[in-house]
Amino acid sequence: MLNPLLLLSKLKNLEKAIRANQERIWRKFREANKMEAELNQAKTAYSNLSQEMKNLGSAGKQVANTLGETNNLLKAELLNQFF
Prior knowledge:
mainly alpha
């Protein structure tokens, strides 16, 4: 014959175990969401930095071209002065 008190005790223990597992799962879920948010922020920061580097590279090329043109103009001006 089944002992009702023993059954009730087992049920309560099972409920406690389920609640503990649910709490652990929710903690892991929240932790995973936080980590995902941090990963997305890092990806965004990387993308922004990459774009900034491209822009900086383009600006550097423009400056180099402008300086080259200025240098050529100065050379031409100097040559005109001697000839």
